[in-house]
Specification:
HIT family, subunit A; 5-stranded antiparallel sheet; globular
C-alpha cells in the first residue's frame, strides 16, 4: 500500500491536533473542517478499505467512535452530526487509509451536505441477496 498522509501522521512526521489515542486508534481534528470539531478517526493498522481491517482494529474503532462523539457534543454544544467513511475512489475516498469523519452539523449551512437519490428494491432479488449475505456473514 502506498504511503499516505495518515501513515506519516502515525509515524509522527506530520503534526496533528490529537483528540483521542489508544493502542489501535488515533483521532485528530481535520485540517480542512466542514464544521468546527470535524474529527478524523483512523486505525493504526494501515489498510485502505474497511473490509481489510482486522476484527481487532474494527472493534477498537467501534469503541472509540461513540466516546469521541460524546466529547465533541460536549465541546461544540452540537448534538447532531454525520459519520462518514468511504471505500474506494468511486466512493469518494481520497486518502487510501481507512478513516472515519465525525462531522458536527450545527446548522444547515455548516457540516456535510448530502444528496440521496432514492432507488427501488426488487424484493425477489433482495431475498436472494439477503440469504447469500447471511450465509457469508455467519461463517
Amino acid at each position: 500500500m502506498p504511503d499516505t498522509i495518515f501513515d506519516r501522521i502515525l509515524r509522527g512526521e506530520v503534526p496533528n491536533h490529537t483528540v483521542y489515542e489508544d493502542e489501535h486508534v488515533l483521532a485528530f481534528l481535520d485540517i480542512g473542517p466542514l464544521a468546527k470539531g470535524h474529527t478524523l478517526v483512523i486505525p493504526k493498522e494501515a489498510k485502505a478499505h474497511l473490509h481489510e481491517l482486522s476484527d481487532e482494529s474494527a472493534a477498537a474503532i467501534g469503541r472509540a467512535l461513540p466516546r469521541i462523539c460524546r466529547a465533541l457534543i460536549e465541546v461544540t454544544d452540537v448534538d447532531q452530526y454525520n459519520i462518514l467513511q468511504n471505500n474506494g475512489a468511486r466512493a469518494h475516498q481520497a486518502v487510501f487509509h481507512v478513516h472515519f469523519h465525525i462531522i458536527p452539523k450545527p446548522d444547515a449551512a455548516q457540516g456535510l451536505k448530502v444528496g440521496w437519490p432514492v432507488g427501488t428494491l426488487d424484493h425477489d432479488e433482495a431475498s436472494e441477496m439477503a440469504a447469500r449475505l447471511r450465509e457469508l456473514t455467519q461463517s
